[in-house]
Predict the structure.
Amino acid sequence: MDGPAEPTISRSKPAAFTGGAVIGALGGLIGLGGAEFRLPLLIGIFNFAALEAVILNKAMSLVVVASALPFRAATVPFSEIGSHWQIVVNLLAGSLAGAWFGAGWATRLKSETLYKVIGGLLAAIAVILIVGHDATAGQPLLTGGTQLLAGIVAGFAIGIVASLLGVAGGELLIPTLVLLFGCDIKLAGSLSLAVSLPTMLVGFTRYSRDQSFSVLGRNKVFLIVTAAGSIVGTFIGGRLLGIVPNAVLLPALAVILLLSAVKVWRHK
């Protein structure tokens, strides 16, 4: 387990606000927490220790997810999300358990191999989206009981990943929703946020038992400024959602996945 990192001059308020706003805009536009970008930022630029960065990352991702969902409602209304509640419940059946176990492991384990596995998985999903999204758009990959079981298994794996890295899991949830359930990319983004929020709360509750959770109290100003930037960003991203077409969103998601894969793969 990492000890608390010393404060660094790079934790300036303008840098914290700007970083939060840029990542928040991605969250509002695509339906991500943006944590794969934020984690390297917290460790490499703001000089937080690994586990502290994961906990801060999860707290900030919660802000992005919670604010992005209503900001996207003008394009994807809550009624449409509610009409697909079975998909949300299906994924939550696995992701809540995965989030609890993943957070428990993160407080005890550090493994460079794990980062490489996750990086490889992100890259593989990006390739699948680029190559196969035309053939599968609107057509569920599986149906019936097989789809239900696959949703639980996928949710469990995503819940683990979300807790271990402090992410919202949108990078994995959105492809799952598009490929497994045949959802439209914009609907998938909002359903992803609906699944991510309770999943992250479970992981966050588990992290609160660890002493590194005190990083939130020691860095209140940094957290508040970054959260404020994130809310501004998600508002901007939510407004862009009604402008940016699906043909742009899917390739953009794939690029983000590939960039995230490289960052996670290189993470130590």
Notes: Residues 1-9 have pLDDT under 50 and may be disordered. The chain is about 75% helix and 0% strand. The radius of gyration is 17 Å.
